Amino acid sequence: MSTTSDFALRAGQYVGLAADRITFRGGQPLNGHVEVRGAKNLVTKAMVAALLGESPSLLRQVPDISDVNVVRGLLEIHGVKIERDNESGDLHLDPSNVERAHMAEINAHAGSSRIPILFCGPLLHRLGEAFIPDLGGCRIGDRPIDFHLEVLRNFGADVQKLPDGIRMHAPRGLVGAKITLPYPSVGATEQVLLTAVRANGRTELRNAAIEPEIMDLINILQKMGAIISVDADRVIRIEGVDRLVGFRHRSLFDRNEAASWASAALVTKGDIFVGGASQPEMLTFLNVFRKAGGAFDIHDDGIRFWHPGGELSPVVIETDVHPGFMTDWQQPLVVALTQAEGVSIVHETVYEQRFGFTDALNQMGANIQLHRECLGGQYCRFGQRNFLHSAVISGPTKLHAADIEVPDLRGGFSHLIAALAADGESVVSNVGIISRGYENFISKLQQLGADFTVED
Ligand SMILES: CC(=O)N[C@H]1[C@@H](OP(=O)(O)OP(=O)(O)OC[C@H]2O[C@@H](n3ccc(=O)[nH]c3=O)[C@H](O)[C@@H]2O)O[C@H](CO)[C@@H](O)[C@@H]1O
Ligand SMILES: C=C(OP(=O)(O)O)C(=O)O
């Protein structure tokens, strides 16, 4: 097991990379096997949930990604003792000695993640106060936290905005509330869950997000002693309890990483077995993958994805909340769509500015035009607000080498696979961001036969 201090030192930094630039020699198919472990979008929240327990928790399948290290660093500042077995991915969290932390230390560790905002409920329950630093996460739009703050006020928290973060108090404790979210936000739904489980009385949440990662967080909270029911039509009801205990839980797999490797197989005309992936959480992705011309085969221990030969077909996609097409799936798939015979459309309805990554693809020879209009039948909050949130991709276009810079996590993965599909030598810089959500992606690319050099 690694020691606590190893990880404290690494908290807030991107892991696993000696350098931030990779030179790719494209044109080879990616073939082979990669394993995906726990979902970034569940594991980091489960770690926060451990704060609510009176006894230690064990989380399994935790990936070595920088977002996990950021959350680990923050938990350790609050006195949670954490040990990790890197090989198995087991993470032991002991919250017996949670204490107040210095604002300066918290700020120094906030790093690149959006998770600090989810510490509010657990810290208010345990300590009666919380300080939350400015958030990281991908810059793919404004990403306000107004729903979170409103939710916390509904529970009775006193919220004060400071120049470098937010301070909260709940001197009289937190009380269950009736809440309707303006949009089924994943983070705000988690905020309600993590706060309501220990609040006094009942909470009813309407217009909740119901992503698989949220369902798995509910599984964890139930193991801890919470009482939560999920009704039809996005209604979640929580009965607050006086105490929660630690949990033992094997995390849901990372369906976003799995979908990325699936797209990598399609883009490079390869064949990739994604160990650990399972069908139900990827149903919507699999339908689109098949319509675009990709082949897949579901196994007990993973899913095989490959390019079956012949032309790829254009598709029309509208990203949406679950069970719709996940917004984190579109970027790598767009690279494949540059190779489809005809015109594809992607209407991004979750984030207003998530097509920044397409500039680099156009530089490499793709033909992607962005539009402010909603190119789709679905209601979208961005149509009247002047955002380039619809993409028209005309293909097939040959991709050629270029020097490109990673703008964000999923855009970054799409750049890697575009460089691997392009003729010639491409230099991709700022690749460290990719470690936020893709465990050991450099070793995995090596395993799959990619030809590249990491700069020392
Ligand atoms: C760590 C994590 O789990 N990240 C995921 C999570 O992000 P995250 O939880 O940040 O995403 P949300 O579901 O909250 O955001 C969805 C939309 O709601 C808006 N919004 C959200 C909160 C708020 O207070 N006010 C507001 O306006 C956002 O700007 C965005 O337009 O869900 C997203 C949507 O599935 C995924 O892309 C991210 O990978
Ligand atoms: C947008 C993402 O993550 P985050 O919310 O952590 O920035 C993502 O995983 O693609």
TrEMBL record:
GO molecular function, one term: UDP-N-acetylglucosamine 1-carboxyvinyltransferase activity
GO annotation terms (biological process): cell division; cell wall organization; peptidoglycan biosynthetic process; regulation of cell shape; UDP-N-acetylgalactosamine biosynthetic process
The protein's Enzyme Commission number: 2.5.1.7
Alphabetic keyword roster: Cell cycle, Cell division, Cell shape, Cell wall biogenesis/degradation, Cytoplasm, Peptidoglycan synthesis, Pyruvate, Transferase
Subcellular location: Cytoplasm
InterPro entries in the record: Enolpyruvate_Tfrase_dom, Enolpyruvate_Tfrase_sf, MurA_subfamily, RNA3'P_cycl/enolpyr_Trfase_a/b, UDP_GlcNAc_COvinyl_MurA
UniProt superkingdom: Bacteria
GO CC, alphabetical: cytoplasm
Main subcellular localisation: cytoplasm
Domain (Enolpyruvate transferase) ranges: 25-445
Coiled coil regions in record: none
2-(S-cysteinyl)pyruvic acid O-phosphothioketal modifications at: 138
Alphabetized Gene3D superfamilies for the sequence: Enolpyruvate transferase domain
Associated pathway: Cell wall biogenesis; peptidoglycan biosynthesis
Reaction catalyzed: phosphoenolpyruvate + UDP-N-acetyl-alpha-D-glucosamine = UDP-N-acetyl-3-O-(1-carboxyvinyl)-alpha-D-glucosamine + phosphate
Active site: 138
Signal sequence interval, chain numbering: none
Binding sites annotated in the UniProt record for UDP-N-acetyl-alpha-D-glucosamine: 114, 328, 350
Binding of phosphoenolpyruvate, residues: 40-41
Family (UniProt): Belongs to the EPSP synthase family. MurA subfamily.
NCBIfam families to which the protein is assigned, alphabetical: murA, PRK09369.1
Name this protein carries in UniProt: UDP-N-acetylglucosamine 1-carboxyvinyltransferase
Organism: Pseudoclavibacter endophyticus
Organismal lineage: Bacteria, Bacillati, Actinomycetota, Actinomycetes, Micrococcales
